[in-house]
Fold this protein.
Amino acid sequence: MMAMGVSTEDQLRERIAALDAELGERRREAEVKERQLERYAADLRETFKEERTRAQELRRSYMLTVRALASAVEARDAYTGRHAERVAAYGLKLAEAYGMRLADHPEIEFGFILHDAGKVAVPDAILFKPGPLTTAERLIMQQHPVTGWEIVRDIEFLGAARDVIRHHHERWDGTGYPDGLAGDAIPLSARIFAVADTFDALTTNRPYRQASTTASARDIIQQGVGTHFDPAVIEAFATLPDAVLERIRLEIG
Ligand SMILES: [Fe+2]
């Protein structure tokens, strides 16, 4: 019995020692795995950082390209000055006020800046005519959204921005151009932009009229609710404080 007891105790001790050894081994394996995971996580973080930097650089170079193209259009028209930049700033504020998720569509800003790219094809005699346009001249002028869209349609990175270029002169009641779209059929970005564009046109000096004040521009825009403009966009526009709009006007002058 005694010999058996010692033997069992020895066996138990051996078993415990073996288990200890196994436990130690497993711990070492776990530590190795943990270090591997840490290295993997650090690699992922590094890759993510690099990707983000690359994406930012890409966006910066897209933006420079877009601005260069917009300047080429604007260089012809001394009256509108930095219209594209200003209207893009109004448009972004309005999109934000409307609750549009701009983070999901960062390219929309490109559309705001490039909206009139098609005006490169409008002859000077029409673009700069001081008086009212004839019907034939108006038809040529009204081709600029399609011309602009044709210029950019194959540029993939512009994505939904191309809608703004094609549809910024559509009207809520379907009487706009080029496609006579009505209501929700008009892309939201273009509905938002139409209000920003009109606000900028009204609050800028033109050879044939003085700039309106913010208040009177708001009144004029209000008269277009449901005919020219989307009522929901106008509601969002009403929530934008005058100070926000006037700061943009002052800064981008
Ligand atoms: Fe336009």
Summary: The mean pLDDT is 91. The two ends are 104 Å apart (CA to CA). The chain has eleven helices and no strands.
